[in-house]
Amino acid sequence: MRSVSIFGATGSIGQNTIDLIARDPEAYDVVALTGARNIKQLAHDARRLKADIAVTAHEELLPDLRAALDGSGVEAAAGAKALDEAAGRPADWVMSAIVGAAGLAPGLRALEQGATLALANKESLVCAGALMLKMAQANKARLLPVDSEHSAVFQALTGEDIASVERIIITASGGAFRDWPIEKLASATLAEASSHPNWDMGQRITIDSASMFNKAMELIETKEFFGVESSSIEALVHPESLIHAMVGFRDGALMAHVGPHDMRHAIGFALHWPMRKELPVERLDLAAIGQLTFRAPCEQRWPALRLAREVMETGGMAGAIFNASKEIALDGFIDGRLRFTEMAGIVEDVLTKLTGESDHINATMTLDNVAQIDHLARIEAQASINKRAG
Ligand code: NAD
Ligand code: MG
């Protein structure tokens, strides 16, 4: 039996993870499940998986969680300290699926106790990649990628020497506006940006997909995870989204990973690694699909890609600045204070200002310093939005 914990159990990745674990309850001993406001779901899953503890991030929801778990034998806890305590409980395998920078601290705690950490939370690597890798190494813990592109790269690298890699190509669907005339983007509405041509995801990641901020994050994530030069990492628009990534080797070979649109593939790969086990995902019928198409990404349409390149080249705390200012710019678009095309300008303003101040960019990467720069970048982004609003 393997002991497992799931951080962000009530979200889209968390629920897909639970779907896989619940199919084979004899194989897993569930330690901790964590969530935020969806107490009903958290309690339901903690009961059926017989978790040791369920934790909500919100202290005021503790009475609700206690009531929902009454008589189940599952411990209820709430708040940041409880989350940290639960993350420190020994588990063989931990899913990191909290959204945003809030996923960083629990992920580090799990690495500290030597767990294998399946990492869906891309913000951890973007904000503090060096810190995550250092923590893993110091505690003989293992990090496995769950973002589909990075899982694909990881799979294509099996048995290969990283020194023979010439390039890594991650694909992008292109999002809601891939076929729009560029001049029209400034008038894109929230509803238009929130509908994805290929799949159904949360609103924030769908908008990040239309702006390619999601892909920009993933370029940075690739550099941090695989430790390759930024000049060898590319994004490629692939509207069918069936090839998730390709690795190019120095002999000219390209290894592509082809798979259905189903996060249970990447989650299941990380769950069973280093073995492969049967997964309940669609088997692709390539003859029926007929063709796969590709286009070069246009940096005029998607300036986030250019900004990601700057972040990769700057290094240090630039990723944390990028992530935080992007979060605030996205809030600004959702609240109607920014146009779709203004988000990148806000992020660029903040990057220019804060990466120009060398004490920020060269600060030692600790959890506290990352939190501090995250906070500062949010304030700067807010100021930049206010300035634009006049
Ligand atoms: P989601 O919004 O569906 O779920 C987020 C989870 O985090 C929920 O359980 C929520 O309760 C919890 N949470 C939210 N705020 C929190 C806080 N402040 N403190 C503690 N817990 C909090 O998100 P998701 O789509 O499952 O994505 C999770 C992560 O995985 C993100 O980093 C995302 O970028 C990444 N990811 C998602 C997908 C996908 O297909 N959904 C694919 C690749 C990567
Ligand atoms: Mg992805």
Characterization of the model:
- By secondary structure, this protein is α/β, with parallel strands linked by helices.
- The protein has 3 domains: 2-145, NAD(P)-binding Rossmann-like Domain (Rossmann fold); 148-260 and 271-313, no CATH class; 316-390, Orthogonal Bundle (Rna Polymerase Sigma Factor, Chain: A), CATH 1.10.1740.10.
- The chain is built from 17 helices and 11 strands.
- The chain has helices at residues 12-22, 39-48, 62-68, 80-87, 104-112, 122-138, 148-156, 190-193, 203-211, 213-226, 263-272, 286-289, 303-314, 318-334, 343-355, 358-361, 367-388, and strands spanning 2-7, 28-35, 53-56, 75-78, 93-96, 116-119, 142-145, 165-172, 233-237, 243-249, 254-258.
- The strands form 2 sheets. The protein has a 7-stranded parallel beta sheet with strand order 4-3-2-1-5-6-7, with helices on both faces. A 4-stranded mixed beta sheet has the order 9-8-10-11, covered by helices on one side.
- β2, α2 (39-48) and β3 (53-56) form a beta-alpha-beta unit.
- α15 crosses α17 (367-388).
- The longest helix is centred in the C-terminal third of the chain and has 22 residues, at 367-388.
- It starts with a strand and ends with a helix.
- The model has no long low-confidence stretch (mean pLDDT 96).
- The structure holds nicotinamide-adenine-dinucleotide and magnesium ion.
- Residues 4-129 form the 1-deoxy-D-xylulose 5-phosphate reductoisomerase N-terminal domain.
- Its EC number is 1.1.1.267.
- Residues 143-226 form the 1-deoxy-D-xylulose 5-phosphate reductoisomerase C-terminal domain.
- It comes from Roseobacter litoralis (strain ATCC 49566 / DSM 6996 / JCM 21268 / NBRC 15278 / OCh 149).
- Residues 259-378 form the DXP reductoisomerase C-terminal domain.
